[in-house]
């Protein structure tokens, strides 16, 4: 049996790396189902991907302590950074003892990490970005993980790594070697929705938008027709922040309404990859934003406000629409403190009449786990990945213990992979259970979410927080729209899904700043031909080289077996 599994794994690795669909056939988790899911400790799992070390081994890492982790530790007085439910689980099941060489607050973390990487004295496993991965690899400080992945990545880990295409795993490769295990991220979570104050729509007798012209009409009405009924013209059509592309209150979804995708790479008709930010559609979108700004439909001070400042206008009930990701619901909820009748709903983004808009999804994999050159157990990082996924989403998951207890305890683990579509999957389970009348049988994440929603709908004392969950997972919530986006093939994945190219590492920040400054100035009133100047400058300052590199990557990718 083991031999078969191993051979299959080899097939799967190549399938995974080179984009074949073979891998999706194999779903077995390799779990010994004769044991109950509650069983803990060594020997629970028969599969090699989760087998314990005898005797136990020590694995060193370093750790960043952000606000989230600090809050979790505060909420759990019996657990510490080094001794908690996750460290105990890794030790009991895998024989892996986690030791941190150091752990510091986020403010100091990156500097300390840079100094450590430069010194060459790295821990057994270290999380790095693409540029650091390349540096460590060139310096010969880390080892090739191709063989370890082939032998030890569980079926679930492989499935999660290839969920959004072969790009995720490929981005951890240097040449033909897997030098870092990509930390998983989710592109589809970045899908845009148009969030609207539906109580304002009702107040003014307006319908939800079907086209961009409708969006512009609603924005005007929300600005000029006193939707809050206080007799003053003191409201804005649409939210904005100084960053233009914030995940909530940014313009990514607005631009998509004009067929403009300024932050991703697109494949043109000839099969070449082109940068979305320099396409003529962007100019049209900027034109529309300039007019909205001139008509006071956008806060005149948006350029001085980051997300935390800009959201105050939402809390104050001054904003009627905002583009944003699903979690925006929790931000819009703030408007209900001052006005309990404030109602928001997510709507699908729109474009020209009769056309289903494309929803752009930027490639997001940016962190990798690298393993020190002389570390004797390169597979340990994979076993940890395997166990983290298994205990949260596998057949032996204990969601209430290892993911969300009273706090988001998944954050205690030094590695936190997750399935890219876990939230969409939870929505689908809830929707299906509602149809079948079997909601009481839900488990794990979907049961947790439904409980929050029910507390809100039943008007329980602590129920108000369920409002946001309902806006995301309810029958007409954001996830129901994502489900439609996917069914209608509206998701537009970044055509470049690789590690940053040499010139990107050097010039991307400069180009991003250039784009930002030109776009903001046009919105604030500069002539549109400034856009053409931007395109010229973009090419000259590194864009031309990057375009060549990205197309080389594209050609190489096609050339692979
Ligand atoms: Ca008003």
From TrEMBL:
InterPro entries: Bact_solute-bd_prot1 (IPR050490), SBP (IPR006059). Keywords: Cell membrane, Lipoprotein, Membrane, Palmitate, Signal. The keyword Magnesium does not apply. PANTHER family: ARABINOSE-BINDING PROTEIN-RELATED, POLYGALACTURONAN_RHAMNOGALACTURONAN-BINDING PROTEIN YTCQ. It holds the Pfam family SBP_bac_8. This is Extracellular solute-binding protein. Residues 1-23 form the signal peptide. It comes from the Bacteria.
């Amino acid at each position: 049996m083991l031999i078969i599994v191993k051979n299959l794994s080899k097939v799967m690795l190549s399938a995974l790396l080179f984009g074949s669909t073979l891998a999706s056939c194999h779903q077995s988790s390799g779990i010994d189902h004769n044991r109950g899911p509650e069983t803990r400790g060594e020997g629970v799992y028969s599969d090699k991907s989760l087998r314990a070390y005898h005797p136990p081994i020590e694995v060193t890492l370093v750790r960043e302590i952000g606000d989230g982790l600090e809050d979790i530790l505060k909420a759990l007085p019996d657990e510490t950074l080094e001794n908690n439910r996750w460290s105990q689980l890794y030790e009991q099941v895998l024989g892996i003892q986690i030791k941190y060489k150091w752990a510091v607050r986020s403010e100091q973390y990156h500097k300390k990490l840079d100094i450590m990487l430069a010194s060459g004295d790295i821990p057994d496993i270290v999380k790095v970005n693409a540029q650091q991965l390349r540096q460590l690899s060139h310096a010969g400080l880390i080892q090739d993980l191709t063989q370890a992945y082939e032998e030890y990545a569980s079926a679930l880990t492989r499935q999660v790594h290839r969920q959004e295409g072969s790009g995720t795993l490929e981005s951890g490769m240097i040449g033909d070697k897997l030098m870092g295990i990509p930390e998983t991220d989710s592109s589809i979570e970045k899908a845009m929705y148009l969030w609207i104050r539906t109580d304002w729509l009702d107040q003014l007798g307006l319908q939800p938008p079907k086209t961009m012209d409708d969006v512009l009409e609603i924005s005007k009405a929300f600005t000029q027709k006193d939707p809050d009924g206080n007799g003053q013209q003191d409201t804005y059509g649409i939210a904005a922040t100084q960053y233009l592309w914030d995940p909530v209150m940014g313009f990514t979804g607005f631009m998509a309404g004009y067929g403009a995708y300024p932050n991703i790479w697109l494949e043109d008709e000839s099969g070449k990859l082109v940068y979305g930010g320099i396409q003529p559609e962007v100019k049209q979108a900027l034109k529309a934003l300039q007019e909205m700004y001139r008509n006071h439909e956008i806060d005149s001070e948006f350029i001085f406000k980051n997300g935390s400042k800009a959201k105050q206008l939402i809390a104050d009930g001054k904003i009627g629409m905002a583009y944003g990701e699903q979690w925006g619901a929790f931000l819009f909820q703030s408007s209900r403190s001052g006005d309990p009748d404030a109602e928001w709903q997510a709507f699908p983004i729109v474009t020209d009449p009769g056309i289903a808009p494309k929803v752009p999804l930027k490639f997001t994999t940016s962190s990798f786990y690298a393993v020190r050159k002389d570390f004797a157990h390169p597979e340990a990082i994979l076993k940890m990945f395997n166990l983290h996924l298994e205990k949260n989403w596998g057949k032996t998951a204990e969601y209430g213990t290892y993911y969300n207890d009273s706090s988001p305890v998944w954050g205690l683990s030094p590695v936190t992979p997750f399935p890219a579509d876990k939230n969409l999957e939870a929505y689908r389970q809830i929707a299906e259970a509602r149809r079948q009348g079997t909601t009481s049988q839900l488990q794990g994440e979907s049961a947790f979410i439904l409980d929050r929603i029910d507390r809100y709908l039943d008007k329980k004392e602590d129920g108000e927080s369920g409002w946001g969950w309902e806006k995301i997972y309810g029958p007409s919530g954001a996830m129901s729209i994502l489900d439609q986006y996917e069914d209608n093939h509206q998701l537009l994945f970044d055509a470049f899904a690789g590690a940053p190219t040499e010139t990107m590492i050097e010039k991307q920040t400069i180009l991003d700043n250039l784009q930002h400054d030109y776009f903001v100035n046009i919105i604030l009133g500069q002539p549109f031909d400034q856009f053409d100047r931007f395109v010229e400058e973009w090419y000259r300052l590194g864009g031309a080289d990057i375009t060549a590199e990205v197309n080389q990557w594209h050609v190489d990718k096609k050339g692979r077996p």
